[in-house]
Design goal:
Layout lengths: L1 H9 L2 H7 L5 E3 L5 E3 H6 L5 E10 L3 E2 L5 E13 L2 E2 L2 E9 L5
Antiparallel strand pairs: 1-2, 3-5, 4-5, 5-6, 5-7
Helix pairs in contact: 1-2
């Protein structure tokens, strides 16, 4: 989780490329869906964070090393000059277990 949050905060699409599952799918704050390639492209389209934190709740772990983590993502930044700030409830699914 820490590596993912750091990569998001730093706008490091290369690091995210190594962390995200090939079938990655994200639901945006307005209900839109972003596939893996679209998620990685966000930083090349004007997204920049000045702050990005993830505070996890207790993960639910599974015997195969997978885990589901619900937590709060707090972010501050801009997308093409427009503010992208707020706190959001987020669900992350890890395969192989979170770090």
């Amino acid at each position: 989780m820490a590596a993912w949050a750091r990569a998001e905060r730093e706008g490091d699409a290369g690091a995210l490329d190594g962390l995200l599952h090939p079938d990655f799918l994200a639901v945006g704050p307005y209900g839109f869906l972003l596939r893996r390639a679209q998620w990685l492209e966000r930083f090349g389209h004007g997204l920049a964070y000045t702050d990005f934190e993830f505070a996890p709740d207790t993960p639910t772990r599974y015997g195969d090393g997978s885990a589901v983590v619900v937590g709060t993502q707090t972010q501050r930044g801009t997308q093409k000059g427009q503010p992208v700030e707020g706190s959001f409830r987020v669900t992350l699914v890890f395969t192989g277990g979170p770090e």
